[in-house]
Design brief:
Jelly Rolls, 3 domains, 9 helices, 38% helix, globular
Length: 448
Amino acid sequence: MTTGGGSMRAAGSHFGAQGMHYLTVAMIVLTAALLWWHRYGMVRVLELSADSGHAIEARDDRGDGGISRAELARRDGLDLTCTLAKGAYAWPYCGYHILLGEGESGVDLSVYDRVTIELDHTGPGEHSLRGYIRNFERGFSTVADYRTQKVNEIEFTLPESGAITIPLGLYRSAAWWNSAQHVPLLRTGANIDNATAVELYTGSLSEMGTHRLRLKAVRFEGKWISERELALGLLGAWCVYGALWLSLGMIQYRHQLRREKARVATLTVINRALQLESRQLADQVIRDPLTGALNRQGLRDALVADEESGAHGQFDAVLFIDLDHFKTINDTWGHETGDQVLRQFAATAKAVIRDADKLVRWGGEEFLILCAGIGAGNAAALAQQLCDRLPLLAWPQGLHVTVSIGVADIAGTADIGAAIRRADAALYVAKRNGRNRVERATGEPAPA
């Protein structure tokens, strides 16, 4: 009986080992198949074209007081004749408005990774386009006022091939819309989870004249399962497999278990490499490409990181800076000279502030400096140092560049937005008092 029992255990062990061998092969095949399918397939597509059934209409700037005119004709694609003309509206435009939803109901475009635009464009000058995704955000947007829908935008130059693929992560919430709608700082991030319309317009610097556009398709593409979800699912499956393997005999299968651990380690290395790449891409998104300063998204991320790190309150003063008569520089010398001035100012400000301080391009010629651990008095001294240095520098076209600065004490308050508004009010006092000066916010003592 002992011999028979031993034989049965041996047979059971052999059967278990053989079954685990088959299961191992099945797991490997399934993992490889899923990875291959995720890499080369598993793609969901939303196509907007003349045949997609979506309402598509022409839009131009006449509703904004302009005199440009757009006319749409349907053939194999969507042919649009756009006559751009200077009128009362400062930024003439015309283009396509593609309706995705009505009222509060839109389409979740956040499940897609990229958008491909196929469009033929003939006409004078550089063929640049502005892409908008309008998003209805419950609790903020209203059906009665179309302007309250968030405007996510991107501007790009159309290649000669007439097709371009853009990662959706490059769309940013429009600064002009945030300002017009008085959007709270923490609500200014891009969001496309309830998109009601996709729009394509001529670029902000498009030359006046007749432009002919032919829209072939706008395609949103993404994976049915995200890379993270797939990795977590595979990892979970392998964990269950490992537990089953251990239950049938850890000693017998130790060598094979080490091999599985090596495979998990390889996935961990890949995941770390992807995280590093993601951080590098995120840094590009949070910085203003012209000046290298943080943009509003970068400021928002810095404040969130400050709070999550447990160092909340390290910023105790804010400087609100405006370049004096900057519009005159643009109007007289052109935007290229204006861009040179902005870059030189940002470089000078970075040289003055400390590593712990944050330089933020707030919009246009407006900048913020968040000062850490020096108080409003020393912050005002730093502002005066910056104000005094600028007139001594050599500027493009021999310009004399000055700034007006408002300083406010954050003083450990939780509402940094209130401090920014007080610094902004102090800035306007500096403007009224003759510019090229520093003013402290009302109610704060002057530095000794």
